[in-house]
Amino acid sequence: MPIEYYKIALGIFVCLVFVSLTTLFSYLLARLYITKVKKHAEEMHAKDMEYQTTLTETIVETQEQLLQNISRDLHDDAGQQITALNFQIENYKHDHPEEVERLSVLSQSLNHLSQSVRSISHSLSSQLVMQQDLGKAIRNELERLQKNSRIQFGIAVSDAPLLLKDDEKLIIYRIFQESLNNCLKHARAKNINIELLASPKFKLSIKDDGKGFDLNEKSLSLGMITMKRRAELIGCTLQIASQPGQGTQLVLSRN
User: Fold this and answer.
1) Between 224 and which of 141, 183, 220, 249 could a Cys-Cys bridge form, CB atoms 3.0 to 4.6 Å apart?
2) What is the pLDDT of residues 189-247, one digit of tens each?
3) Residue 78: exposed, middle, or buried by beta-carbon count in 10 A (0-12, 13-18, 19+)?
4) What is the pLDDT of residues 21-31, one digit of tens each?
């Protein structure tokens, strides 16, 4: 009998060891599978983020090149044609003194048009933007827009220097331009206030007193999505706050 009990006990022990090893093996196998799945998901996410970043960089570069082409065409082609037309008017005034008064009005309009074309060309030029301090570039853009708008612009710039790379400065400026353009087109605002801070961390705020909108009901436009992706390229976050009847605020800040 003792031998039979010993065999039974040994059998039970072997079964327990086998079950334990099987359970341990199953656990390790499941853990390994989960780890591989997680690693694969992380790799796919990293590749997707890399693809999104590359795509955004390509879009930004393409848009910037297009803006440079427009800026150059405005400065060279349109500017020269306006100058040539003004020269012809001056010659016509010389040959027809009786039309001087009427033609002078036309000359003034052409001069204003020439200044506007030059101003827009400078606004689109990345080289001119990168050569300036960001605060100055923003002030110049507001001055240009103020000439043809009833909206009142306000700007506050911190005294601390903005330590930005050229590509960062350009991307921030383009986000500012796009946001301002959205305000002018859709907000129906009377006042737009810009705040540019360097300390304790970089922040650009653009706030209007326009009609606002419900963020839950209105999906982001392509322009807004592009602005958010531009912000991500330079390690920034773009946040939007808006309510119907209470205006809209866009804040670009360092992460």
Assistant:
1) 220
2) 999 999 999 877 899 999 999 999 888 877 677 778 888 888 988 899 999 999 999 99
3) middle
4) 777 777 777 77
Distance CA 129, CA 136 (A): 9
Domain 134-255 adopts which CATH fold?
A: Heat Shock Protein 90 (3.30.565)
- Could you give the percent of the chain with pLDDT greater than 90? 21
Contact 165, 230 (CB under 8 A): no
Please say whether the beta carbons of 252 and 76 come within 8 A.
no
H-only helix segments in the chain: 2-73, 79-95, 100-124, 126-131, 134-146, 166-182, 222-233
| The residue type at 62 | T
Averaged over 145-172, what is the pLDDT?
87
Q: What is the dihedral of CA 205, 211, 213, 218, to 10 degrees?
A: -110
Other beta carbons within 10 Å of 214: 9
Q: State the angle between helix axes of 166-182 and 134-146 in degrees (0 to 180), rounded to the nearest 10.
A: 30
- Please answer whether residues 176 and 239 qualify as being in contact, where contact means their C-beta atoms are separated by less than 8 angstroms: no
Annotated domain spans of the chain: 134-255
Residue 34, helix vs strand vs coil: helix
Cβ neighbours around 182 below 10 Å, total: 19
Q: How much is the CA Rg of the chain, to the nearest whole Å?
A: 32
Tokens describing residue 225: 């999505």
State the Cα–Cα distance between residues 100 and 94, nearest whole angstrom.
Answer: 8
CA distance 171 to 229: 10
